[in-house]
Amino acid sequence: xxxxxxxxxxxxRRRRRxxxxxxxxxxxxxxxxxxxxxxxxASVTGLLDPRFLSAPWTVVTTAAELIxxxxxxxxxxxxxxxxxxxxxxxxxxxxxxxxxxxxxRWGEAVIDGPVQIKRAVPALALMPLLILWLGIGExxxxxxxxxxxxxxIYVHTxxxxxxxDSRYVELAETVGLGRGAFVRKVVLPGALPGFLLGMxxxxxxxxxxxxxxxxxxxxxxxGYMMDLARTYGQTDVIxxxxxxxxxxxLFSDAGVRLVERRALSxxxxxxx
Length: 272
Description:
With 272 residues, the protein is mainly α. It is built from 11 helices and no strands.
Protein backbone atom coordinates (compact mmCIF):
# COMPACT_ATOMS: atom_id res chain seq x y z
CA UNK A 1 0.00 0.00 0.00
CA UNK A 2 2.88 2.32 0.73
CA UNK A 3 4.37 1.76 -2.71
CA UNK A 4 1.02 2.45 -4.40
CA UNK A 5 0.55 5.67 -2.43
CA UNK A 6 3.99 7.01 -3.24
CA UNK A 7 3.84 6.48 -7.00
CA UNK A 8 1.40 9.34 -7.72
CA UNK A 9 3.50 11.64 -5.52
CA UNK A 10 6.65 10.73 -7.46
CA UNK A 11 4.79 11.31 -10.75
CA UNK A 12 3.70 14.77 -9.56
CA ARG A 13 7.27 15.61 -8.59
CA ARG A 14 8.53 14.51 -12.01
CA ARG A 15 5.82 16.58 -13.73
CA ARG A 16 6.75 19.69 -11.80
CA ARG A 17 10.40 19.39 -12.79
CA UNK A 18 9.42 19.69 -16.46
CA UNK A 19 8.23 23.26 -15.99
CA UNK A 20 10.63 26.23 -16.35
CA UNK A 21 10.20 27.02 -12.65
CA UNK A 22 8.81 30.03 -10.79
CA UNK A 23 8.88 33.42 -12.45
CA UNK A 24 12.01 35.48 -11.68
CA UNK A 25 11.31 39.03 -10.57
CA UNK A 26 12.84 41.43 -13.13
CA UNK A 27 14.30 38.40 -14.88
CA UNK A 28 14.61 40.31 -18.15
CA UNK A 29 17.42 42.33 -16.54
CA UNK A 30 19.59 39.32 -15.67
CA UNK A 31 21.10 38.87 -19.14
CA UNK A 32 21.91 42.56 -19.67
CA UNK A 33 23.42 42.71 -16.16
CA UNK A 34 25.74 39.82 -17.03
CA UNK A 35 26.80 41.59 -20.23
CA UNK A 36 27.50 44.74 -18.21
CA UNK A 37 29.61 42.72 -15.75
CA UNK A 38 31.63 41.16 -18.60
CA UNK A 39 32.12 44.57 -20.18
CA UNK A 40 33.34 45.97 -16.85
CA UNK A 41 35.75 43.09 -16.23
CA ALA A 42 37.17 43.34 -19.76
CA SER A 43 37.68 47.09 -19.30
CA VAL A 44 39.37 46.72 -15.90
CA THR A 45 41.71 43.97 -17.07
CA GLY A 46 42.69 45.89 -20.21
CA LEU A 47 41.21 43.39 -22.67
CA LEU A 48 39.22 46.26 -24.21
CA ASP A 49 41.16 49.22 -25.56
CA PRO A 50 39.35 52.39 -24.32
CA ARG A 51 40.17 54.07 -27.65
CA PHE A 52 37.86 51.62 -29.42
CA LEU A 53 35.37 50.72 -26.68
CA SER A 54 34.98 53.00 -23.68
CA ALA A 55 34.53 51.54 -20.20
CA PRO A 56 31.00 51.46 -18.68
CA TRP A 57 31.86 54.14 -16.11
CA THR A 58 33.12 56.40 -18.91
CA VAL A 59 29.81 55.96 -20.71
CA VAL A 60 27.92 56.80 -17.50
CA THR A 61 30.04 59.93 -17.01
CA THR A 62 29.47 61.00 -20.62
CA ALA A 63 25.72 60.41 -20.26
CA ALA A 64 25.69 62.60 -17.14
CA GLU A 65 27.51 65.37 -19.03
CA LEU A 66 25.04 65.11 -21.93
CA ILE A 67 22.12 65.31 -19.49
CA UNK A 68 23.68 68.32 -17.76
CA UNK A 69 24.04 70.13 -21.08
CA UNK A 70 20.49 69.18 -22.11
CA UNK A 71 21.60 67.46 -25.34
CA UNK A 72 20.51 63.99 -24.30
CA UNK A 73 16.99 64.98 -23.24
CA UNK A 74 16.36 67.00 -26.40
CA UNK A 75 17.55 64.26 -28.73
CA UNK A 76 15.75 61.54 -26.75
CA UNK A 77 12.44 63.44 -26.87
CA UNK A 78 12.79 63.91 -30.64
CA UNK A 79 13.42 60.16 -31.12
CA UNK A 80 10.58 59.08 -28.82
CA UNK A 81 8.19 61.41 -30.64
CA UNK A 82 9.08 59.85 -34.00
CA UNK A 83 8.66 56.32 -32.66
CA UNK A 84 5.29 57.10 -31.09
CA UNK A 85 4.02 58.67 -34.32
CA UNK A 86 5.29 55.69 -36.33
CA UNK A 87 3.51 53.29 -33.97
CA UNK A 88 0.35 55.42 -34.04
CA UNK A 89 0.16 55.04 -37.85
CA UNK A 90 1.66 51.58 -38.26
CA UNK A 91 -0.34 49.64 -35.65
CA UNK A 92 -3.83 50.60 -36.93
CA UNK A 93 -2.71 50.06 -40.53
CA UNK A 94 -1.35 46.59 -39.83
CA UNK A 95 -4.39 45.62 -37.76
CA UNK A 96 -6.87 46.82 -40.39
CA UNK A 97 -5.07 45.03 -43.22
CA UNK A 98 -4.88 41.84 -41.13
CA UNK A 99 -8.62 41.94 -40.42
CA UNK A 100 -9.51 42.46 -44.07
CA UNK A 101 -7.08 39.79 -45.23
CA UNK A 102 -7.96 37.34 -42.47
CA UNK A 103 -11.72 37.55 -42.88
CA UNK A 104 -11.91 37.54 -46.67
CA ARG A 105 -10.31 35.30 -49.30
CA TRP A 106 -10.38 38.17 -51.77
CA GLY A 107 -8.86 40.46 -49.15
CA GLU A 108 -6.06 37.97 -48.63
CA ALA A 109 -5.49 37.64 -52.37
CA VAL A 110 -5.19 41.41 -52.77
CA ILE A 111 -3.31 42.34 -49.57
CA ASP A 112 -1.12 39.44 -48.48
CA GLY A 113 1.19 39.35 -51.50
CA PRO A 114 2.19 43.04 -51.42
CA VAL A 115 2.73 42.87 -47.65
CA GLN A 116 5.03 39.86 -48.03
CA ILE A 117 6.94 41.74 -50.75
CA LYS A 118 7.33 44.72 -48.40
CA ARG A 119 8.45 42.31 -45.68
CA ALA A 120 11.30 41.10 -47.92
CA VAL A 121 12.46 44.59 -48.94
CA PRO A 122 15.00 46.10 -46.49
CA ALA A 123 14.41 49.57 -45.10
CA LEU A 124 17.56 50.99 -46.70
CA ALA A 125 16.28 50.00 -50.16
CA LEU A 126 13.22 52.19 -49.65
CA MET A 127 15.07 55.24 -48.42
CA PRO A 128 15.97 56.75 -51.84
CA LEU A 129 12.34 56.58 -52.99
CA LEU A 130 10.96 57.94 -49.72
CA ILE A 131 13.42 60.83 -49.82
CA LEU A 132 12.37 61.65 -53.40
CA TRP A 133 8.67 61.46 -52.53
CA LEU A 134 8.62 62.98 -49.02
CA GLY A 135 11.87 64.92 -48.70
CA ILE A 136 14.10 64.63 -45.65
CA GLY A 137 11.72 66.07 -43.07
CA GLU A 138 9.80 64.47 -40.23
CA UNK A 139 7.21 62.97 -42.56
CA UNK A 140 9.79 60.72 -44.19
CA UNK A 141 11.17 59.51 -40.84
CA UNK A 142 7.73 58.71 -39.42
CA UNK A 143 6.76 56.94 -42.65
CA UNK A 144 9.87 54.74 -42.49
CA UNK A 145 9.01 53.71 -38.93
CA UNK A 146 5.33 53.12 -39.74
CA UNK A 147 6.27 50.91 -42.72
CA UNK A 148 8.50 48.86 -40.45
CA UNK A 149 5.88 48.60 -37.70
CA UNK A 150 2.84 47.53 -39.69
CA UNK A 151 4.45 44.36 -41.11
CA UNK A 152 4.87 42.39 -37.82
CA ILE A 153 1.46 43.59 -36.66
CA TYR A 154 -0.10 42.35 -39.90
CA VAL A 155 1.76 39.01 -39.99
CA HIS A 156 1.07 37.96 -36.41
CA THR A 157 -2.49 39.30 -36.23
CA UNK A 158 -3.32 37.58 -39.53
CA UNK A 159 -1.83 34.34 -38.23
CA UNK A 160 -3.84 34.71 -35.01
CA UNK A 161 -7.03 35.18 -37.02
CA UNK A 162 -6.44 32.13 -39.17
CA UNK A 163 -5.58 30.07 -36.06
CA UNK A 164 -9.00 30.60 -34.42
CA ASP A 165 -10.66 27.25 -33.79
CA SER A 166 -13.25 26.60 -36.50
CA ARG A 167 -15.65 25.30 -33.84
CA TYR A 168 -16.06 28.85 -32.53
CA VAL A 169 -16.92 30.03 -36.04
CA GLU A 170 -19.46 27.22 -36.43
CA LEU A 171 -20.98 28.10 -33.07
CA ALA A 172 -21.25 31.77 -34.08
CA GLU A 173 -23.01 30.74 -37.29
CA THR A 174 -25.34 28.43 -35.36
CA VAL A 175 -26.49 31.12 -32.92
CA GLY A 176 -26.84 33.61 -35.78
CA LEU A 177 -24.22 36.19 -34.86
CA GLY A 178 -23.96 39.11 -37.24
CA ARG A 179 -20.68 40.20 -38.80
CA GLY A 180 -20.09 42.94 -36.22
CA ALA A 181 -20.85 40.72 -33.23
CA PHE A 182 -18.71 37.95 -34.74
CA VAL A 183 -15.75 40.30 -35.00
CA ARG A 184 -16.21 41.63 -31.45
CA LYS A 185 -16.89 38.33 -29.67
CA VAL A 186 -14.87 35.81 -31.66
CA VAL A 187 -12.35 37.43 -34.00
CA LEU A 188 -10.81 40.08 -31.76
CA PRO A 189 -10.41 37.86 -28.65
CA GLY A 190 -9.09 35.02 -30.83
CA ALA A 191 -6.57 37.25 -32.61
CA LEU A 192 -5.41 39.01 -29.41
CA PRO A 193 -2.48 36.63 -28.68
CA GLY A 194 -1.15 37.07 -32.22
CA PHE A 195 -1.67 40.83 -32.09
CA LEU A 196 0.27 41.15 -28.82
CA LEU A 197 3.09 39.02 -30.19
CA GLY A 198 3.16 41.33 -33.21
CA MET A 199 3.30 44.29 -30.82
CA UNK A 200 6.46 42.88 -29.22
CA UNK A 201 8.12 42.75 -32.63
CA UNK A 202 6.67 46.12 -33.64
CA UNK A 203 8.02 48.16 -30.71
CA UNK A 204 11.56 46.83 -31.19
CA UNK A 205 11.32 47.21 -34.97
CA UNK A 206 10.30 50.84 -34.47
CA UNK A 207 13.61 51.56 -32.73
CA UNK A 208 15.55 49.72 -35.44
CA UNK A 209 13.93 51.74 -38.22
CA UNK A 210 14.44 54.92 -36.20
CA UNK A 211 18.20 54.38 -36.43
CA UNK A 212 17.98 54.18 -40.22
CA UNK A 213 15.78 57.27 -40.42
CA UNK A 214 17.86 59.43 -38.08
CA UNK A 215 21.20 58.71 -39.72
CA UNK A 216 20.02 60.48 -42.88
CA UNK A 217 20.05 64.29 -42.79
CA UNK A 218 18.71 64.67 -39.26
CA UNK A 219 19.39 67.59 -36.98
CA UNK A 220 17.85 66.03 -33.85
CA UNK A 221 17.52 62.58 -32.35
CA UNK A 222 19.74 59.89 -30.87
CA GLY A 223 20.90 58.79 -34.32
CA TYR A 224 21.94 62.35 -35.17
CA MET A 225 23.84 62.60 -31.89
CA MET A 226 25.67 59.34 -32.68
CA ASP A 227 26.47 60.39 -36.25
CA LEU A 228 27.88 63.69 -35.04
CA ALA A 229 29.98 61.82 -32.47
CA ARG A 230 31.31 59.57 -35.23
CA THR A 231 32.56 62.64 -37.08
CA TYR A 232 34.60 63.71 -34.05
CA GLY A 233 35.65 60.19 -33.00
CA GLN A 234 33.71 60.32 -29.70
CA THR A 235 33.22 56.61 -29.03
CA ASP A 236 31.83 57.29 -25.56
CA VAL A 237 28.95 59.35 -27.01
CA ILE A 238 28.32 56.66 -29.64
CA UNK A 239 28.12 54.05 -26.87
CA UNK A 240 25.68 56.24 -24.93
CA UNK A 241 23.41 56.18 -27.99
CA UNK A 242 23.79 52.42 -28.47
CA UNK A 243 23.05 51.70 -24.79
CA UNK A 244 20.08 54.06 -24.93
CA UNK A 245 18.66 52.34 -28.01
CA UNK A 246 19.13 48.97 -26.32
CA UNK A 247 17.44 50.05 -23.08
CA UNK A 248 14.53 51.63 -24.93
CA UNK A 249 13.99 48.43 -26.89
CA LEU A 250 14.34 46.25 -23.78
CA PHE A 251 11.87 48.21 -21.68
CA SER A 252 9.44 48.64 -24.59
CA ASP A 253 9.36 44.86 -25.02
CA ALA A 254 9.02 44.36 -21.25
CA GLY A 255 6.03 46.72 -21.20
CA VAL A 256 4.26 44.81 -23.96
CA ARG A 257 5.04 41.49 -22.25
CA LEU A 258 3.46 42.81 -19.05
CA VAL A 259 0.30 43.81 -20.93
CA GLU A 260 0.32 40.43 -22.69
CA ARG A 261 0.61 38.53 -19.42
CA ARG A 262 -2.32 40.41 -17.87
CA ALA A 263 -4.54 40.44 -20.95
CA LEU A 264 -4.02 36.72 -21.52
CA SER A 265 -4.05 35.65 -17.88
CA UNK A 266 -6.81 33.14 -18.70
CA UNK A 267 -4.41 31.04 -20.77
CA UNK A 268 -2.64 28.08 -19.23
CA UNK A 269 0.72 27.81 -20.92
CA UNK A 270 4.26 26.62 -20.16
CA UNK A 271 5.19 30.20 -19.25
CA UNK A 272 2.65 30.10 -16.41
